[in-house]
Each structure stands twice: as C-alpha cells, then as structure tokens.
Amino acid sequence: MPYISNTDAERLEMLKLIGVKDFDELIQAVPPQLRIKGDLKLDDPKSELEITRKIQEKTCRNVCSQSANSFLGAGVYDHFIPAAVDTIVSRPEFFTAYTPYQAEVSQGTLQYIYEFQTMICELTGMEIANASMYDGASAVAEAILMAVRKNRLKKAILPATMHPDFVKVIRTYTEGTGIELVFAPEKDGLIDLGALEAMMDETIGSVVMQSPNFYGNLEDGFEMDRIVHAGGKALLIACVDPIGLAILNAPAEYNADIVVGEGQALGNNINMGGPLFGFFASKLDMARQMPGRIVGGTLDKEGKRAYALTLQAREQHIRRDKSTSNICSNQALCTLAATVYMSLMGRQGMVEVASQSAKKAHWLASEICKLDGFTMAHPNAPYFREFVVNTPIPAATIIERCQVRGIYPGTDMARFGKPNQLMIAVTEKKDRELLSDLITALKEVSHA
Amino acid sequence: MPKNIFELSSPGRKGFTLPTCEIDTPLEQFIPAKYHRKSIAKLPELSELDVMRHFIALSHLNHFIEKGLYPLGSCTMKYNPKLHEALVRHSCFGNIHPYQPESTLQGALELLYELQSDLAEISGMANVTLQPVAGAQGEFTGLKIIEAYHKAKGNTHKKKIIMPDSAHGTNPASCTLAGFDVVELKSNSEGRVDLEALRAVIDDNVAGFMLTNPNTLGLFETQIVEISELIHSVDGLIYMDGANLNALLGIVQPGKIGFDILHFNLHKTFTTPHGGGGPGCGPVGVVDKLLPYLPVPMIAKNDGGYFFDYRNEATSIGKVHSFYGNFAIMVRAYIYIKMLGAKGLRRVSENAIINANYLMKKLEPYYNIQHKEYCMHEFVADGTKQKKLNGVSTLDIAKRLLDKGYHAPTVYFPLIIPEAMMIEPTETESKQSLDAFAEAMIAIADECEKDPEMLHEAPLTTPVRRVDDVRAVKVLDPRFEIKD
C-alpha cells in the first residue's frame, strides 16, 4: 500500500506483541453492527503514473491565465511571482512542519512569522499584526467582532461598495450573534459620505471601508476618519490591498483602528480562489482582543534571542468558549510566500509593482473609453488597478466572444446585478501587446 | 538565532526584475496626490541570494515530518506525499480564476465534484461542502447549519450545545462564535460520554451535541447509538468533530451510525501538509435533512457539465469563504483518495490503530496509562508517575524528546488527564521508527529517575534552549522596530 511502511509480516509481529490474534480483536470497542459491511464504494487504487495521467486529463480542460490573456480580479490578482518564492515554500522544513507550539524546534517558522508581522505593520502603519486569518472576508468579519469586544457596541456599518461575497461571509459570521449590520449607500462608485455622516450616532460600534473598494475605486480615508471618529466610540476598520499599500495611504495616516485585507496578491497563486490569507493589524491597545496567533520576540534560558507564540491566553486551546476567536489552523504557508515575496521585491520592487499596475490600468481605461459605447462607470472616482466600464452590449456577450480569442476581458458584473458592466483588473504582467489585444478584441466584438 | 531579514537589508539592493513600464505619465496624473502614502514602507532590501540564504537558514531551525516522527495526538502528522506537491503546481490549477467562465474550469470542477462524492461515501453523509478552509471553520459551518435547521422549524429557543469535557478547544470556541451556549459534560470513569450526566442535561433547549469519535483519549464512543437516540428525542443534531477520522476509514461511516454533521480535516486524515500552521481544509458532510442549509455554492453536474450550484441560496447558511475554499488543498486530498482507493484507506486506519496500540504496549511499563483498553489511532499516556516520584513534569519530558530528534506529543491535553501526553504515531511510521521512539521515551523515563535536574534543563541541543514564553507576554514584542 502506498505510504505505509510496514509489511504484512511486520503487522502480524506487532499484533502478536500487542497480544491480539487479529486486527478485529483490536477494535472490539466498535460494536460490530456499526461497522461497514464490505468496501467503501470508491475508484480502484491508482499508481503515481496513473494518477498523474488522470490529473493531466483534468488540467487540460482548464484554461489558465498563462494561456489566456486574463483581466479578472475581483479580490484575487495575478501579479508576477519570482521563482525563489516557490523554492522556499516547497521546502518540507516549512510545509510539513506543524504549528510552532514547540518553540525550540520551530524557530524557523516563528521567526518568519515575526518578520511577516513586521512587514504588515510597515505596510499598514499599524503597531501589531497577527500571523494570518483565513482570507480577507473572514478577516473583516473578525475585525467587526473585535470591535464589539473593544467597545461593546453591536452595530456595524458596512459600505455598499464592499465586495458582495465578502458581505455574504460577514453576514454568516455575524448572524445570530446580536450584531446588527447596516449599509452605507453608494454614490458614483464610492461610499456616499453625506449619507454615512447622517447615519452616525452613539450606537455605531464600527464602520468598515474597503479601499480599493469592490470596483477598484479609492475611498477617502481622511473623510472616513473625520466622520467615524467625530463622536462616540466607533472604530474605523479599513480593508485594504497589500500591493496598493506600497504607494497608497497607509491606513494609519487616516487613523484607522483595525486594518485587514486579502493578502493573496503577495506572492501567492490564485488557485481558483484558495488558499488565500487575510492579514490583520491594529493599534497596540487592542492586542489582547485580537483573534489568531501572534508571534513575539523573547529570550531563551541562556538569554539568547528567540521567538514564541504570545498572548495565547486569547486563543481557543487555552480559553475555550471565552476565546477571542475559534481560529486554530490559519494560512501560515501563504504568509511564508508573502514574506519571501516582500523580501525579494523590497521597498523599491513593491512600489514598482504597484505603480506599473496602476499606470497600465489607467492607460487601458482611457483607451477603452475611446471605443464606441464604452464609458467609465464611475468617471469621478480615483482607482488603483481595477475599474468598471459601461459596455454597449451585455458584458456576458463580450466575454463569450473574447473567450474564443483566448481573452478573459474581466468580471461580468451581471453576477452582481449590472449586466452592462465589465470590471477590468490590470497588473504589472500586462505589456503593451496584451493590453492592445484586449482593446482590439473589445472593439471588434462589441457590436450588437 | 540568525539575524532578522531587516537587519540584513542594505540600501538600494534588489532581489527582483520587472519588465520596464512603457507608460511615462507620472502616477500623480492618474491618482491624486492625496491618496499617495506619505513615506515609503520600510521593507528590506536584499539580493535574491541574500533572501535564499536567510530563509534556508531559518528552515534549518524547524522540525518537520521528513526529519523525524511527530507523535502529536489528534494532529495526524502523517507523511505528505511529494506527488501531491508536483501535481498541484500545474499552471492549470495554480493560475485559474474563480470567475472564469465555467466552461474553462471543467477539469477543476469535475475534481471537486468527485471529491465531494468520495468524502460523502467515506463519511456516509448525503453530501459534502468543500468550502470551509480549516477544521474550526468546519465546526463553525456545522453549527450554523444546526442553527439554520432549528430556525427553519421555528425553534429559535434551541441554544444549548452539549459536549464532553474531553473536547478540543475549538469546539466550545466555535459554539460561542456561532452564538450558542456550551454545556460541558464530565466524562465517565472509562473516559467516555457519561449517559446519566447526558440524560440530566437533555431538554427542549438542546440544539445539538458535539462529539469527537474516537474521542481525544483515543477511545471509540461505544454508546453512540444511545447518545443519538437521546439527542434526537429532543430534535437535537449530532455533530462529529472529524479530527480523529484517521481511525475510521473503511471501518465506520459516521453518517450511518447516528451523526448528522461531520467535518473533515483534509490536513490530517487526507495528508495535505500542515504548512507550519495552515492552510488546512475543513469540508463538512451532512445527512439528507440538512442538505438545504449547506453553504453555497455546491458543485453540481447537468447535461452541460459541472457548475457552481447556487440553487439553495435562499435556505443556505450563506458563504464562509470569499470564493470556494482552499482549492489547492482539495486537489492534494483528491489525489490521495484516488491513489489509495477503498482498500488503501481501510489499510490506513488499520495500521494507524495497530501502530498506536503497539506503541502503547511498549510504553505501558514506563508511563502511567489511565485508560488501559485497546485504543484506536491514538492513546493518552501521562507523566504523573515521573511527576510524583522524580518531580519531573510532562513539559520536561516533552522538551527532552526534542533533544532526541523527536517532536513532542500533544501535552496537557485532554484536560481531564493530569500531565497528559497524547500520542498519535500515524500509519506511515514503520515498526522500526516506533521502536526507536519507544526507546527514546524509555530512556527518558530512566533519566527522570537518575538525573531529574537535567530534564528541567532540557532541551540541551536544540537551536535555542527553553524559550521564555512568559517574557514573550510580559515584554510584548510583536514586530521589529526598523531603523532607517
């Protein structure tokens, strides 16, 4: 049998030492009437070669962004990943290791998490970051729950400009817990700040902003700060893009209290949407309310620098039903990819990736808007690397026609109730030719 | 310890190359200055070789499966086949986008559909959602399903979830997150659910019962049929924490013996790598009557092929992940199930059980074992003898094991066993490696008698000596202060 070392002879020898005549005697605690009769109904076992062929047969029926010219984003982004990232991430020393509870034999994992936390603090301007959440969506949900722990106010405002699937996850996390979600309306692709201001009162515990928001547009963090922090105890939760942070306001600049976001764009493949990872940072005074693992620097008994999981009294394995979250497994290996990625890109590389993506997106947008029937959906909103255009014919038709040319022109906003809109994401990977191919295709397929 | 990555940084150094950008327009003309950050993020600046040396140096400080045995109870640290890593890295898995047209994702969707079906068969459940990304998120998903089931019947008063005191910490934590009240049940003298105690807390407010089976003592819950009748008599649902499913493959289908909901840990039973703490994957299976509440989308099939199925959106608990969960982890588990087949999976559980009993037998003369019956895939020994006679704690013993090239067992859990050492060798370990581990444990038992002082000092040979985790809390240092 694959991956089982012991032979039948060794098995018998072991059963003999245990003192039973056969395996059945060993599981006498399992009442016979509860056991399966016969075999499970599964395919016959396969060899490495056979399963490789079976997998190849499947991959052939997927069309990936290496062979198609893809402008899909909507929360996950196709940035370039240097080869060295996977060389590190695929080392068994990292990927087969357990959670670093035994600090003395886990310093490698603990130190990179400490470095990761530091990088997230640098990007966001915040004072403390945790070791990761499942994804951006659950990170926002947990941020809302943390805000409730902090100020005991159970009403949260979500922006109508937030990723609709994030909103669905947040609903699942908050429903039945007594937390009331209300929505700040949207105006021209951004939060309607006037409406938000009118909604604010002393019952509001937290206000979430996503910037770039679902459409790729940049919300005004300084105005959010003014409105959210004007009165009572409300906390400002910023959900941000980590690549964007290289050039865009660090949320600390506009006084955000909790900063979260989807981290996939940092050195992780899209993998059909998972695994992703959420990052989670805040001001230091909320450290004891944070969800998830946190690594801290400390000393060993000889006074040498060492790292350990810290503030564990917040966590489920210690505090059980009183813990700050139920999270145990997180997305550690994805944060390793992010840490190696940010180490390689460094401060200049991150800025370069972000500016190239932004510049190419803006150039593309202006070229697309020269085509008949295409206009910006939110002409006055600043944006980063993704934008929404109105299309002359349903986006679904455009997507279908582009597909035969090997182009995914963007996200069909019909998915979110707007059939004549296309959302287009651009990263630094797009050169002039790939951008021009999209423009040509849009021009040629957008007839009625 | 190696310097940290920021201390290695050298101004202007580069570890990347990017194509030149053909657009000369300054960024300020595209994005107003107000939105630009005021100062650059002080990320490190290194060459590719610098970065490689740094992370390789860090990697040398870790214990990992290929280095040595990981006897962590309830964690199922079995060998992770390298084939999975090779195949999952195919570009047509790694570089597909969740919003691509379904016609361009047919291979991926077919794989997920087959995995849903195979996991349903393995667990005896009607269907399985793959969306939850970790065991704890699987628990949360299951509890939301319990909530939705009762809500649909108008039974919003059902807020009580019962669980034994041997439950994993995530169980009560997930209950709180899902808005339930936890009722903890004292285990009986056998280490199993105490039926009398259970009867005493059963009433109409019971929403459900959470049970790990085999439980965290490695014992099969023999009274599951009685438990099931009791809970179902008040229309409660029974949730199985599948953390210990490695004992039941091809032996018991939980969905056929009274459990209504179960989560899998693909990163345990189905050998997807632990990754130093994640990512995992926590699919949830349910019986027929709970199908309407599963998260959306499911993966379904019609004449046109495979598709994301949102038909149950109105009754579903909603979504728990931005997209469809940890796809790349699912691919690995799929490969594992297809390679082993029914007989291979059964063999996994048989050998896991044999290995655990073999090791228990070898350690029994040296360490106290409170529940001496045959165990399933794991058992709990304890250090009470050493504590009492030699003043050596289980923590000392655990740390000494690190010196001998092993990871420690899960210690001080389950909470109901003092000085607990929960040991799960898994089926991938050979008899020889179990013998060697037993020798190390026996040698430590001997050291406890002869040199208890040395054990308080352990570990002696690891990259760092015993780490001061109290200081890590008192002098909180969660990030490096970068000087520029």
Short synopsis of the structure:
The complex is a heterodimer of chains A (448) and B (484). Chain A is of the alpha/beta class.
Question: What can you see in these coordinates?
Answer:
The complex is a heterodimer of chains A (448) and B (484). The longest helix of chain A is centred in the C-terminal third of the chain and has 37 residues, at 332-368. In chain A, α6 (107-124) packs parallel to α12 and α12 (332-368) packs across α14 (432-445). Chain A has two domains: 69-81 and 346-445, Aspartate Aminotransferase, domain 1 (Alpha-Beta Complex), CATH 3.90.1150; 83-340, 3-Layer(aba) Sandwich (Aspartate Aminotransferase, domain 2), CATH 3.40.640. The model of chain A has no long low-confidence stretch (mean pLDDT 97). Helix content of chain A is 36%, strand content 16%. Chain A starts with 7 loop residues before the first helix and ends with a helix. With 448 residues, chain A is of the alpha/beta class. Chain B is α/β, with parallel strands linked by helices and 484 residues long. Chain B folds into three domains: 1-61, no CATH class; 83-339, Aspartate Aminotransferase, domain 2, CATH 3.40.640; 348-470, Aspartate Aminotransferase, domain 1 (Alpha-Beta Complex), CATH 3.90.1150. In chain B, α4 (106-123) packs parallel to α9 (327-363). The longest helix of chain B is centred in the last third of the chain and has 37 residues, at 327-363. The mean pLDDT of chain B is 97. Classes of the chains: A alpha/beta (448), B alpha/beta (484). Chains A and B meet through α1, α2, α3, α4 and α5 of A and α1, α2, α3, α4 and α5 of B.
Residue ranges of chain A: pLDDT <50 for 5 or more in a row? none
Coarse structural class of chain B:
alpha/beta
**End-to-end Cα distance of chain B:** 22 Å
Biggest interface and residues each? A-B, 213 and 199 residues
Q: If classified by CATH, what would the architecture of the largest domain in chain B be?
A: 3-Layer(aba) Sandwich
Radius of gyration of chain B, in angstroms, nearest whole number: 25 Å
Tell me the number of structural domains of chain A: 2
State the share of residues found in helices of chain A, binned by percent: 25-40%
Outline type of chain A: globular
Question: Which CATH class of the largest domain in chain A applies here?
Answer: Alpha Beta
What fraction of the residues of chain B are assigned to beta strands by DSSP? 5-15%
CATH architecture of the largest domain in chain A: 3-Layer(aba) Sandwich
Radius of gyration of chain A: 25 Å
Order of helices and strands of chain B: HHHHEHEHEHEHEEEEEHEHHEEHHH
Strand order of the largest sheet of chain B: 1-7-6-5-4-2-3
What's the name of the CATH homologous superfamily of the largest domain in chain B?
A: Type I PLP-dependent aspartate aminotransferase-like (Major domain)
* Integer tally of domains of chain B: 3
Averaged pLDDT of chain B = 97
